[in-house]
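S.,

Sequence below, as promised.
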Amino acid sequence: MNKRSADTLAEALAAGLTPVEYMLEILRDPTADEKRRDWAAEKSAPYLHPRPTPTDRTVTVELPDTSTIAGINQALDRIIAAMSTGTISPSEGASFISAIEGRRKAIETTDLMDRIKKLEELKR
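The prediction came back faster than expected:
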């Protein structure tokens, strides 16, 4: 932004205009330089036309029992296959994988706790 633009912005702010209102004034001014009008359009667009929020959809993927590591591996294979065929999107696949990773951690934690308990019993 050059000195003149900075002065004009300062004047607009002093007059009580918000930055978006300032950009809209430039955009609507037919005597304004074309580059300034393009700049104003680009910078004000996200405030005037926000991107829509993506909506979740319900998807179904037949998964095996995930209470074992073997079942988890099979489930991951099916999820990857569903992503590769376009049945589910990569972000939907990531959500499935995240849930399965939680299951894997629970299995691992239970297994470790059982092993620690057995080791402690051996020490007694």
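The radius of gyration is 29 Å.

Coffee later?
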